[in-house]
């Protein structure tokens, strides 16, 4: 009997044909969805919620129908996610008139390997209509919000390119919330005190000043000599409490610079410290196999691939049979795959003395995880590298990450012997017995899963190090003290992968949509790639060195801290993004609630589990949105004009926001002047423009006389410049901008 397999992409057809050999099977592709919602209307009935699909590619549909006519058995092999289930259903409806009297099955495979494909053919199923309904509900919700909310934005901002997607709004709000944290963050400096201690001439250790947790509060408030404070009533009370509660040493973060100076002045170079120590075993477990988001994060951090590139590379690897399906929020590995991987680890790494393989089970911890398939993993550990038609070094780099992570997830822990040392002067010390320098040194005990990685691990021997300490009578001599000031918990804007991580943490969106959400935010100019707000903060630093001329003299210096950091790949909310969210919050406050978006994913879960119907969800949302839209009449919408936007409102001369930024529009000449460089020069926003600014901008090009010649002042993308009567451009020294612009 002749069979037809319909997959989503052309590349898969070649891979699957190779596996099926001489079987009488045709393999074709749909190119994703063969039907979609219409572009010019809502596309569904708001009473019955029936969708009115339109074909996306008539040639592909024609080809599929022709092949189906000649087939006895048809396999709908779209991807194993909700989108794939919906595609399979649309294929079934497309072929309904042809497949009467034929056999039609739904099959899925999480990896494109020979065994997986044959196993799928031998274990077909029917289309899961609950999953189809969940996908259609998500599609209707997103279309409903997009088509009903976006026009409200067009009316408000007179820009018909703006959009307001469900997850898009949530992503923008997360970016804005982080921006607000940075703006509202109080700058709180603190200091720690570090010491260098010599055990013998060729060996020193570094320690940080610690304090018992019950003594810290006392010293951050009281600037009296710490030697005197140990006999206060507070300390006695503390001693009584320690009979019940064990005192804990913590790093001493000092908020008062005067306390820092006082402690350092009481510390002396060449002071003898007594070393006491404890050893503890510390196990480091391997990370779980990749989900879509953790793969994107690692690919970005280690290879500098953005999420879009990562997904394209992963798609290629999947379609050529090298990894499992790459859109997933699961961390599980199929049992047969585990056996294969564990067998490879045993053969390759295990020895009679050391076992590296370990059976593990991972549970998905992601909020609203919906996808039922496996983690992103390799399909065969014996292939340490990949090569296929069109493969690149980038494919190899991504595959290396997945290969390492897959094997590591089924290997033993890396085990360390942690040596915790305390360096004390004793109760007669000038700094008091509650102050202790602490140092930790880790010694590798068992390499475990780190055998896969090339990172350098400390291979020093613990016993050798302990012998050195014992030979020194467990004493060390102080050689240097220093205190470097820093700022407490400086937040940062999110980069692409950090935003994806936040979306996932909130249970918002799906692995298949994260990349497109960020693309949309950038495309609509709601965010732009840039840096944190830049601010310099000057802070005092202190040092005492083992120097004959400066012995025990406190050396004071200052350093500048750039609070914004150097990262240039951050998602910076634009003025337009801020205005859009502010307005959406006024009209549709429920759409700005992150819990609303997360709850919607819960509702989709309930549809998948057949515990709720889509009608209930959609009717409730539709009623909310229509009520909100109806309260927004044209009379109470403050309209501002924009270039490149809609033309439904009369354009007026003035400052406007366009898709290209803030502009000055001159109605008489119908000309737009981008004033973003001007705002940057003046370090103001659109709202900060004064009448003086507007007068200058509206005067452009402004005639002036400069160095005895006549020019026109113009505003370009790099700021103010001059143009002569021959239309040649000339630079004007930035120091002179104010003088000539406002004279």
In short:
It contains 23 helices and 25 strands.
Features:
single chain, 743 residues, alpha+beta, Rossmann fold, Topoisomerase I, domain 3, Topoisomerase I, domain 4, four-stranded parallel sheet, 23 helices, 37% helix, 21% strand, flat, isomerase
Topology:
Layout: E1 3-7, H1 10-20, E2 25-29, E3 35-36, E4 54-55, H2 58-69, E5 73-76, H3 82-94, E6 103-106, H4 114-122, H5 129-157, H6 166-184, E7 189-191, E8 194-200, E9 203-212, H7 216-221, H8 226-229, H9 233-241, E10 249-251, H10 257-266, E11 272-284, H11 292-303, H12 307-319, H13 335-348, H14 393-408, E12 414-424, E13 435-446, H15 462-471, E14 475-487, H16 496-505, H17 514-523, E15 527-530, E16 536-545, E17 555-562, E18 570-573, H18 575-587, H19 594-608, H20 614-630, E19 654-658, E20 661-666, E21 671-674, H21 676-682, H22 691-698, E22 702-706, E23 709-716, E24 719-723, E25 729-731, H23 737-741
Parallel strand pairs: 1-2, 1-5, 5-6
Antiparallel strand pairs: 3-4, 7-14, 8-9, 8-14, 9-10, 9-13, 11-12, 11-14, 12-13, 14-16, 15-18, 16-17, 19-20, 20-21, 22-23, 23-24, 24-25
Helix pairs in contact: 3-5, 5-19, 5-20, 6-17, 11-14, 11-16, 12-14
GO molecular function, one term: DNA topoisomerase type I (single strand cut, ATP-independent) activity
Pfam families: Topoisom_bac, Toprim
Domain Toprim: 2-112
How would you describe this protein?
Residues 217-243 and 633-649 have low confidence and may be disordered. The chain is of the alpha+beta class and 743 residues long. The protein is built from 23 helices and 25 strands. It is flat. Among the domains are: 3-127, Rossmann fold (3-Layer(aba) Sandwich), CATH 3.40.50; 189-285 and 415-487, Topoisomerase I, domain 3; 292-412, Topoisomerase I, domain 4 (Orthogonal Bundle); 654-741, no CATH class. It comes from viral metagenome. Residues 2-112 form the Toprim domain. It catalyses: ATP-independent breakage of single-stranded DNA, followed by passage and rejoining.
């Amino acid at each position: 009997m002749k069979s037809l397999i319909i997959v989503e992409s052309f590349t898969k057809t070649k891979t699957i044909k190779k596996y099926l050999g001489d079987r009488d099977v045709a393999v074709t592709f749909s190119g994703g969805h063969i039907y979609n919602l219409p572009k010019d209307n809502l596309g569904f009935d708001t009473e019955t919620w029936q969708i009115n699909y339109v074909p996306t590619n008539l040639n592909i549909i024609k080809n599929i129908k022709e092949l189906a006519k000649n087939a006895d058995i048809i396999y709908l092999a779209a991807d194993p996610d909700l989108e794939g289930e919906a595609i399979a259903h649309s294929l079934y409806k497309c072929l309904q008139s042809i497949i009467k009297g034929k056999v039609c099955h739904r099959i899925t495979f999480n990896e494109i390997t020979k065994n997986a494909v044959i196993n799928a053919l031998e274990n077909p199923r029917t289309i899961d209509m609950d999953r189809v309904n969940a996908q259609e509900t998500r599609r209707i919700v997103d279309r409903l919000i997009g088509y009903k909310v976006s026009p409200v934005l067009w009316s408000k901002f007179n820009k018909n390119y703006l959009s307001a997607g469900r997850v898009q709004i949530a992503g923008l709000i997360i970016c804005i919330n982080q921006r607000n944290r940075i703006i509202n963050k109080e700058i709180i400096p603190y200091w720690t005190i570090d010491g260098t201690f010599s055990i013998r001439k060729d060996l020193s250790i570094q320690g940080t000043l610690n304090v018992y947790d019950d003594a810290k509060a006392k010293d951050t408030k009281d600037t009296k000599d710490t030697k005197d404070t140990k006999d206060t009533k507070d300390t006695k009370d503390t001693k009584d409490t320690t009979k019940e509660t064990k005192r804990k040493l913590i790093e001493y973060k000092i908020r008062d610079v005067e306390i820092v100076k006082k402690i350092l002045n009481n510390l002396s170079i060449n002071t003898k410290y007594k070393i006491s120590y404890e050893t503890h075993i510390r196990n480091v477990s391997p990370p779980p196999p990749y989900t879509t988001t953790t793969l994107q994060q690692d690919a970005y951090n280690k290879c500098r691939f953005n999420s879009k590139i990562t997904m394209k590379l992963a798609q290629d690897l999947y379609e050529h049979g090298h990894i499992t399906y790459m859109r997933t929020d699961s961390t599980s590995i199929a049992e047969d795959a585990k056996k294969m991987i564990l067998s490879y680890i045993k053969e390759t790494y295990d020895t009679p003395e050391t076992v590296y393989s370990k059976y593990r089970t991972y549970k998905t911890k992601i909020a609203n995880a919906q996808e039922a398939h496996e983690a992103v993993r390799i399909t065969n550990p014996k292939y340490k590298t990949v090569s296929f038609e069109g493969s690149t070094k980038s494919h190899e780099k991504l595959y290396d990450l997945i290969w390492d992570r897959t094997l590591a997830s089924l290997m033993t822990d890396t085990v360390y012997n942690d040596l915790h040392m305390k360096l004390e002067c004793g109760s007669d010390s000038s700094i008091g017995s509650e102050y202790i320098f602490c140092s930790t040194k880790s010694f590798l005990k068992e390499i475990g899963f780190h055998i896969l990685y090339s990172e350098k691990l400390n291979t020093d021997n613990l016993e050798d190090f302990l012998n050195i300490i014992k030979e020194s009578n467990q004493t060390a001599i102080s050689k240097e003290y220093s205190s470097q000031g820093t700022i407490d918990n400086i937040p940062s804007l999110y980069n692409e992968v950090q935003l994806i991580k936040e979306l996932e943490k909130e249970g918002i969106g799906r692995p298949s949509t994260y990349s497109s959400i960020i693309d949309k935010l950038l495309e609509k100019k709601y965010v732009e790639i840039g840096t944190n707000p830049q601010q310099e903060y000057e802070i005092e630093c202190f040092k005492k060195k083992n120097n004959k001329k400066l012995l025990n003299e406190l050396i004071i210096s200052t350093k500048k801290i750039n609070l914004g950091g150097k990262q240039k790949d951050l998602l910076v909310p634009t003025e337009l993004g801020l205005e859009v969210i502010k307005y959406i919050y006024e009209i549709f406050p429920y759409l700005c609630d992150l819990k609303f978006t997360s709850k919607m994913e819960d509702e989709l879960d309930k549809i998948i589990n057949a515990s709720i119907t889509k009608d209930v969800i959609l009717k409730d949302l539709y009623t909310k949105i229509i009520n909100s839209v109806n309260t927004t009449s044209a009379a109470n919408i403050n309209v501002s004009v924009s270039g490149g936007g809609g033309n439904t409102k009369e354009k007026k001369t003035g400052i406007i926001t366009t898709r290209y930024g803030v502009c000055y529009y001159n109605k008489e000449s119908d000309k737009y002047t981008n004033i973003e460089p001007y705002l940057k020069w003046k370090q103001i926003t659109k709202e900060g423009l004064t009448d003086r600014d507007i007068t200058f901008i509206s005067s452009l090009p402004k005639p002036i006389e400069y160095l005895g010649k006549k020019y026109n002042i113009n505003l370009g993308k790099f700021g103010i410049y001059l143009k002569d009567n021959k239309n040649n451009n000339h630079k004007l020294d930035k120091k002179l901008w104010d003088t000539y612009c406002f004279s």
